[in-house]
Amino acid sequence: MSESETPRFRYTAALANEIEPRWQAWWAEHGTFHAPNPSGDLADPAHPRAGAPKLHVQDMFPYPSGAGLHVGHPLGYIGTDSYTRYKRMAGYNVLHPMGFDAFGLPAEQYAVQTGTHPAVTTAANVERYKTQLRRLGLAYDDRRSFATTDPEYYRWTQWIFTQVFNSWYDEKIHKARPIPELIAEFEAGTRPTPEQPWSELSPVERRKLIDDHRLAYVSEAPVNWCPGLGTVLANEEVTPDGRSERGNYPVFQRSLKQWMMRITAYCDRLIEDLDTLDWPEPVKLMQRNWIGRSKGAHVDFPVGADTITVFTTRPDTLFGATYMVLAPEHELVDKITPAEWPAGTNRAWTGGHDDPGAAIAAYRALAAAKTDEERTESKEKTGVFTGAFATNPVNGKEIPVFIADYVLAGYGTGAIMAVPGQDERDWAFAEVFELPIIRTVKAPDGFEGAYTGEGPAINSDWLDGKGIAEAKAAMIAWLELHGHGRGATTYRLRDWLFSRQRYWGEPFPIVYDETGLPIALPDEMLPVVLPDVDDFSPRTFDPDDANSEPETPLSRKKDWVNVELDLGDGLKSYTRETNTMPQWAGSCWYELRYLDPKNEKELVGAENEAYWMGPARDGDSGGVDLYVGGVEHAVLHLLYARFWHKVLYDLGHVSSFEPFRKLFNQGYIQAYAFRDARGVIVPAEEVVERDGKWFYNDAPVTREYGKMGKSLKNVVTPDEMCEQYGADTFRVYEMAMGPLDVSRPWETRAVIGSQRFLQRVWRLVVDEETGALRTTDEPLEPAVRKHLHRTIAGVREDMDELRFNTAIAKLIELTNTLTPLPSASREAIEPLVLMTSPFAPHLAEELWRKLGHQDSLAYAGFPEADPAQLKAESITYPVQVNGKVRGRVEVTPEASESEVREAALAAVAEVIDGRTPKKVIVVAGRLVSVVI
RNA sequence: GCCCGGGUGGUGGAAUGGCAGACACGGCCGCCUUAAAAGCGGCUGCCUUACGAGGCGUGCGGGUUCGAGACCCGCCCCGGGCACCA
User: Which GO terms describe its biological process (predicted)?
Assistant: First the structure.
């Protein structure tokens, strides 16, 4: 494009790139987006929104990776920015902060490779992100920004850990309480101690007993230990064949002392409080499934002198239990297995072995050799008889006990009672092993296979005829009465493994004394600052040495590990905990710190927390008003954050019992990638389309669809878009291309449409040739005025529902109506500029200034529609005859139904052709339907 | 296999059970220009057309209704999640 021939004052990328940094600087200088707190150092009674209704909107904060942002990342940020700019103009005191989740593995791995300290990498990445976000004109209150790696921030992460450590869950009142109250109950004898009375316990025994009750506790837990890498790996980092994804070294399961968090204590509340939340149903469902509460019963089956306890959700089917299955790894297997097969053992049950011991050993070897995937994918049921029989407590029948890998050692009790009549897996197994099948729920006539539906009990003695729910309750009562079992609830959710053998994470505020028991450091010793180390590489071992001991990076820093502290009984030697916290820790509570980021005395001041996040009414959970992020965090992040929040609530530190009242999942922006004939990815930018086919350097290429990424050579960055079009155009395009929650492909060539729209808006105010103000004070034509007010009403409605794409479509329509008019009337243009400002804030500020306003429009009132202008002057009714539109009539809005009917029938008289309509339906304000 | 989303023009997408395809991209035509770009204006679901219009159209097959893209039943396809959860 030749610069000299473009009109001098046209809105171009060059002009946008002049306007945008100028307004960004102006906003920063004037603190335009500072939100006032009710109290503390961020209070500001003179602020235009001090004391106004509040709105707390938050994005899931990013991990600042070295690659920087691509155009998909800021989609949600621009959405919340547009929404909050609108709400701020509409009168709300808006809190919209942004921070950085900056602890994490990539920076540590980069450090291992290059020796660069993760703090250096992280700081550089945070700066880069900040620059990129600033360039987009996002209206954050920058005083409230932080990174989870800031010692002033993780001081409070550590403080929360000590709060969790110093509390226990009181099952009676379903609430966490401080540890001193537990000690008081033990001392007073109001709470029994398990073996000896409290007074007879030694100090160390007392500490162990208390430690067993803490919400944060040390336990042996299995981990994936990879000696070749010298690190413990997450499950995702282990390949299905049990090797490390990186380096392909063997990985061993071994147990290690680990910090755990007792999230299972909160299972019921985590499930039940979902009902109070305005979250997408699929996310709630995923959380419910993840927690996996099942109600049923534990039932005891005697086997000789031993007892196999099973968990079942269907105690009502106990009469149909015809065999039992233990997980191959179950501890009772060896005890109950006899030396010989019982007389008359079915050949099919023995696996062809001469005695049960050999059969079990062979089956275990077989199961162990299978990967988890093979074990779970195989549809065919395998297993082997143990040679033992158990007694079904309800009818005294002897039933055989098998081992089979379809029963998982890690779930429930690792043993099941098998009811083939009502369970598909048991049915399949029973068919293979020729086991009896007894139906205990009446199946519909002709039904084949396991019946899991509702029906009356049959073949069940005293349960016969009862429905499932009634039969369950009756059976549980019977089991409890006769001592054969008890009602029980089990959960799939496990306690949260909270320690990592890494460097780049929050150190634990924990030391150990000579007893080896943990002690939480007092508040005044926080933060425990992460020390510098010289070498970030873990110590590696012989890849096959399963018995090697993992060594954390911090454990090698002896002068840090060994400390002298006065914890109340004089200076003593202690050793520090050398694990660090997982990346989840910092993101588990950051929503609270934004409220009061500078508070050095408390995590968050009570008044500030109550104002921004407190419950709005009885029964309301409180929490962030709108939390926007991807569904990939549906379970872990959101569950952990809810758990911590509830602990803080129980201990009285916050007034809200949920962190996020409303959740919105934004979609993803994805992109096409292209491969040449060799299957090699080619740069997407240089691929051209001709007749529905794609070519790179004139050679045909194939197209695929997926995430943006370096390896697919299809990354488009916001920086490029800002250069080529300006941030405002980029923002408008992202918001206009579809609803926020829908994923869609990126298409750079379509961005031009948003630029054309902004150019037309600009041209309504500024003469492109002279730069003079074009806007006049002439009043609008009545029809245009009506269009304006319809637009205002529609845009407000769309904005409230986060339907930015349709709001922008309405603004474009208004603009296209105004563009050809002889006079650019201020009456329409000022509202148009204000309504465009949430999407294109720099352009709007610039035009607002040109229109003669001295201040930012950030606090100008959002236009309001005049109800009188929303009334239509006439209504056009389409007239359908047998479902097809055959004519239309225009009537006044006041026309009565019979008038509309008459007019409509007259309009289609020709089609009706003298016939008598069977039916005439007049839908007020909509249409007329004639049936003949 | 189970659970959750979703299938509408060449493309992204609009549409409280009431005129399907708003708005935008792309394409075609025109204005401006020596020319091109930018900008502006028009046309653009498919088929037929005597240019008035008519027929067919929201993954497929049924149904409810005066009326279905939307509601119900049965399938097909795509995307995401879970993995024998007793």
Answer: leucyl-tRNA aminoacylation
